[in-house]
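EI: anyone free to look at a 428-residue chain?
SC: sure, send it
EI:
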Amino acid sequence: MPSAHAQLFNASGQPQAVRVSERVHWIGALDPNLRTFDIILRTANGTSYNAYLIRGSEGVAIIDTVKEGFAQDFFSRLESVADYDEIKFIILNHLEPDHTGALPELLKRAPKARLFISQKAQSMLKGLLKKEELAYTPVTTGDSVSLGDRSLHFLHTPFLHWPDTQCTYSPEETLLFSGDVFGCHFCDSRLFNDQVGDFRFSFEYYYAHIMRPFKEYVLRALELIQPLPLTLIAPSHGPILRDRPLHYIQRYRQLSTPALHSELSPRQKTLLIFYISSYGNTRRMAEAIYQGAMQIDEVRVSLYDLEGGEVAPFVDLIEEADGLILGTPTINGDAVKPIWDLLSSLTVVNLKNKLGGVFGSYGWTGEGVRLVEDRLRGLKLRVPVPGVRVKLIPTDDEILECQAFGLELAQELMGLREAKSLNLADLQ
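SC: here you go
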């Protein structure tokens, strides 16, 4: 039996399609030397650009293409199993360039093929191809197309991880073309998850950096996907999941379900206070704010010194919390680096509509509090109470002010805070 590696090329060394099932072939490309994807993702094993061909009794459909620089491999593999005049449908599950790089040339070679995209992808498609006159059909959940004895059903799965993303399901094959969902950046010429090397770290890393900010949408997508009979998941990157595909669905559900909620009563809220202190002044403020917030019984308050912990575990805590208060001294007209490090790490989680607040001590002008407040708003947190600033050592009255600040934020979290008239001085 030929090795799995050899399946990628024919006897003449030309790229050829790899059989996924009797009617489905992989016609993608491998990029083993890639070490950074989209600037922010590290790819120790490179990646694959997975594209697929499915054949029915009345024609062929192409599911996604590849990055432009790998188009020749894509066309060679396509030509090894089909003629261009057989192509009835071209389906794009996602319009990022790594999935659509070969699309312009494919449209030229298969001019009779009908193009299908999600409804959210319409403006993106025009921007991608720079053509005003372009025939395509927008689809959503419930829509389907027929290839005769094979059909393709569309699932609207937005924000996984772009607004335009969708999945495509073949009921006759019990196969899901999942787009970026259940994928990872892991290049292995053996292609299938029961043959490649250990890719678990890549699967988890990909989820953490690509899907984690959209957990709400992941859970919505799983409601569409999980009831489907499935024997194989064909993602846009990484191994094709033919061994225990439901395991990967279950793992996505585990990663997307807040663990803390099982430990809280339905009415309880969680409020986290993080601080860092140069001379103990911001620490004293943090302790007072903690005491103030603790006065509301249904708010579970936690206090953390950033100097004594790593950022990554704190990100996990913040993701599941209802409120976040940050304390920072102002040094050289700015908040201190550990606070900014924590904030920069929060881009991988969804913070929209969480409660935010800021406090801190300062020696000269105290800009740090306002700068961090602006950043919290940029991250979509609510910052309803102006931050507390104390010059140098807090007085007894200022400690009481901090306690009141903590109480007010806890009340806001529980919907107990009375509306106050706007004080223009707070905006200065």
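EI: The chain has a mean pLDDT of 93.
SC: 👍
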